[in-house]
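Hello Y.,

Per our agreement to keep a running log of every chain we model this quarter, I'm adding this entry. I've kept the format consistent with earlier entries: sequence first, then predicted structure.
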Amino acid sequence: MREQPAVSGSNRGDYDAQIGVDQLLSLDVSAIDGAFCWPLKSLELTDGSPALSESEAKACNDRGTRHFQMRRFDQAIAEFTTAIRWQPANPTAFNNRGFALLALGRNEEALADFNAALNLNPRLATAWHNRGLVNAMNGEFAVAVQDFSAAIREDRSRSASLQNRGVVQTTLGEFELAITDFDESLRIEPLGYLALQNRGFAKLSLGRLTAASEDFTLAITIDPKLATAYFHRANIHRAKKNFAEAIRDYSEVIQHQPELSIARLHRAESYQQLKRFREALDDLNHLIERNPKSPMLFSNRGMCFASLGEHDHALADFNTALQLDPQYANAYQLRATVLSVQQAHEAAIVDLINAVRHGLKVTEVYVNFSKMWLAPDSPFRNPRMARELAERACELSDGTDPEALGILAQATVERLDGFFPAKSTSETE
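Predicted structure for the entry above:
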């Protein structure tokens, strides 16, 4: 989903645009989330410009610029079109109309205007910059890099072009090149919070968590409402298991960008890690109201209910999750855990089998299986099977899961007891 450019408040025609997402993304802290900010220095003003010598064209261009700054894009296009009629060889009017078209998502028309501007003046850095933006938005990243490079060649002081080229380099996985561009952009504009934010993301992509967090913190210091920087810093806190700090940052994201569902989901999971299940439930209830077809959300809420001992509510949520997605392996595994607590061993075994059948390969599944085979009151009691499953759990955890190791030891002892009956009193004396 592409968002339209949003006015940054500058009186020099500087605007911010953002490519965002409207879905729940991977929880992997290293995964790219697609929320880059593109700063634009994109409207050419006419003050002192000999290219717009006729007063009518100048007046039209200036009125169009004011319309643009007030987000009246259709009126801006009309004024720039009139300026072009007065001076059809003026590249600035084409550039400005192109950017107004871009603001309305009319990318191909915008591209045509930027091409016209560059045909009239191949050294117009702003037009190179704007054409680079269109190509980046259209997924033509290699061409976008060339366009931003041309803008930088014509005007080395263009921090926005350096920053945008860094964004494209990041998209292409060229993180070191991106960091170099962000560094240069920040040398020109030390308070460039978007360059700091995006440099932080490039460092994050290279696994430099501490350095990335420092950049996000600097960006937030400059702009305390920068939701994306809070989000990435929160993910770093969560990756480091600093869940209280993560919750604080996710709360900032939710305050400044409440529609970003992934932040609320991550906050709920952080609450769960701290065993603050009621607060996690509040977040999950909010998400389910807006995403009633998400099996993952029902499964997560069911896990909260189970942790609170509210097993009936937990089972209801797991049932709903499996109605929405009958192949949702994790919901089978979680429901089996609750069923085993309720001594419904046969139903729990069926769920665990389904969890494995649908591809869940986690230590906990095999641990739960082995518990079923080892439980004294289980109709499936079989120490030999319990031992085999516990061995599999130990393999999956590389021998680090204490519960799996404990079950393996217990199952081994019980199996040996079966082979070697206890000695009688007379034999032991």
